[in-house]
Amino acid sequence: MTPLWLALHFPRFALEIFEPSGGPDDLPAACVQQHVVVCANEAAEAAGIYAGMRLSSALGLVPDLASHEREPARETDAHFRLACWAGGFSPHVSLSGFDGPDTLLVEIGGCLRLFDGLENLCALIRQGAIEQGYSPCLGLAPTPLAAEWLARGGEEGAAGQAGLRDQLGRLPVGVLGLKQRERDTLAALGIEHLGGLFALPSSGLARRFGTRLPLQLAQALGEVPDLRLPFAFPEHFEQKLELPAKVSVSAMLLFAARRLLASLSGWLATRASGINECTLVMLHEDLPPSNLLLSFAGATRDLSRMERVLRERLANWTLPEAVTDLRLEARDAVVIAGSTAGLFAQAGAHELEPVIERLRARLGKEAVHGLALNADHRPEMATRPLTQDQAGGKTQGQGKTNSPGPARPLWLLPRPRRLRQHAGKLWHQGAELQRLTGAERIESGWWNHIAGDVDADDAINEEGKPGSTVDDFADVRRDYYVAVNDAGEWLWIFNDGRQWWLHGVFA
Amino acid sequence: MSLAPIPLENLLLRPDLWRGDRLASLGTEPVASGFENLDAELPGGGWPRGGLIELMAGRQGIGEISLLLPALRRLEDSAPIALVAPPAMAHAPAWAAAFPLSRLLVVEAEGDDIAWSTELLLASGALGALLAWLPAKSSNKSLRRLQLAAEGRLSLAFMFRPPGSAGQASPAPLRLQLAGARQGLRVDVFKRRGPPCNHSLLLPVERPVSWQRRATAGPSVTLPSTRTLELVR
Q1: pTM of the complete model
Q2: Residues of B in contact with A506 (CB under 8 A)
Q3: ipTM score for this prediction
Q4: What is the rounded CA–CA span in Å between residue B50 and residue A224?
Q5: Closest approach of chain B CAs to the CA of A89, in angstroms?
Q6: Helix, strand counts (H, E) of chain B
Q7: Which of A426, A434, A505 sits opposite B88 (nearest CB)?
């Protein structure tokens, strides 16, 4: 395996942490440091603003220019998030830069097969960065330094060693990040491109510029090893994102939260793990923080799944107050087994879990469930909703229930309905009922009486549990019959010694 | 430039084309309903996959779900079955007798959420079958969306609708009217891809008491007096 480094350089990074780019209707914006423009977005550049221009001149060109003061601390945070995100593609990630990190280096030589080839992988990485609102320049080379220089110079580069010297030779010397004095010396020598430096003898270079420059040139060409300190992924994931402005519309949080989720997804990939739930904490200026719990039907690290759940949750969420900061906390990462790629593409294999998540995010967790048997003779207690691991083949250890017992109805009324008695006969919806089977006595639940006192019974009645209006919720003594009327409706009715009740429907 | 003529036989293999006097063939293999006389009337010889099957049942308890149980049992192993907005509480012991409960997914929804959930589940293609109880005022537009979501999938999509919707046009390729009867479940094939079906079918759906026993059960039984029950207590 030959190493292959992909460098991601973000020329507008200082601005993009405030104003994500990518929208067609971006307004002119620029990031300034000490009244000098550091970088400007496309709209501002189209109006004639360039890096190095004074802010007063820029405002003269575009009076409504949105300017942000540069914040290096935020840039460091954002680079940290991006490094976590890049962990989703390769475990070898490194941050690099002149003063403070500004370029992301990813060793992808070992991951090409996993992502279906170089082109596909580069497209995925580029797409992922663009979706987070960054505009990346990619550079590809066998050595990290060459990749970084190519990315800075805005050239894509190629995978092979052949032609690397020519490619680098065409780059301007600006990519080296030299000091002003050294740049002046190079200008005096008439050297504008790296090719001019390669042509000079390294001993002469070392005399004029110190040993660092010839060493870098050799490292870029792969003649001298270039060891990079790998990025240390944090042990626990808890990241904070300071919003550039207070946000009072929940939908607008989605974009900022996406940057956090992308970071989480990459971090989980490095640990071969997934999460069942995570919490998005929204900090307010005065009120205590609000927590938004995102829960998933199964352990996952799929970014699109997380985003869908977040979108549904945010759609039904009213913010109590404007949000100043976001924090994403993920605890209890669980290891998920890797999926084996099929030798042949398996068509039609679909997953139900993401659908269940979306349903739950909109309808509530309790509304989407499986069913399980409960060992209780009372019909209303025999069913237990199951909200974990319900769909998709996990057997719940239920006994074989195929033994031919007395018939049970598919539908049970939430609470038994009183049947009308008239002229010694039972009536349901205007039709006379015929009982077909003998009585089946169901008598159970005396223990609930012993366990609970009178207060407990009252509480149960208030909750309106089935049975509360029939006889005591706990102690049940009923005779059940199967009945049918002329309309062909099959019903399950019972007598509790005082009244006749409809309890189930044989659908 | 002239197009080569396409033989009529090849055209008729398309699932959306059929001769007026014959039943359409299906692109996918149908699921046998378990009732021979019903299979004979359904295009392809069973419940068609990948299209809405509308069931208009007048009342509850006439055997409207028992009609589907043989087909649901016949589905591929562990293919999930979803109930969307069921009309009452599902009673686990009865469902467990039909198929393993781990296959069952219950989605409780109301109003517009019913169609939304149904569409999402159908579009996922992950289900073996889906039973949805649509609200009375489902618009033709929302049904069309459901039909589009179901098309090309392998799921059985049963839509229960109130009997009043029989007069309303629907994009579902198969529509059945169900009515209770003394000897079984009466099914009228209201719409299908094929010639109109002008006779009712009487199906012996599974009932808690066998039909013979029922016939001998005699007229209505007089109520046991509450006095004797009180004595027992």
Answers
A1: 0.63
A2: 61, 63, 66, 207-208
A3: 0.82
A4: 63
A5: 27
A6: 8, 9
A7: A505
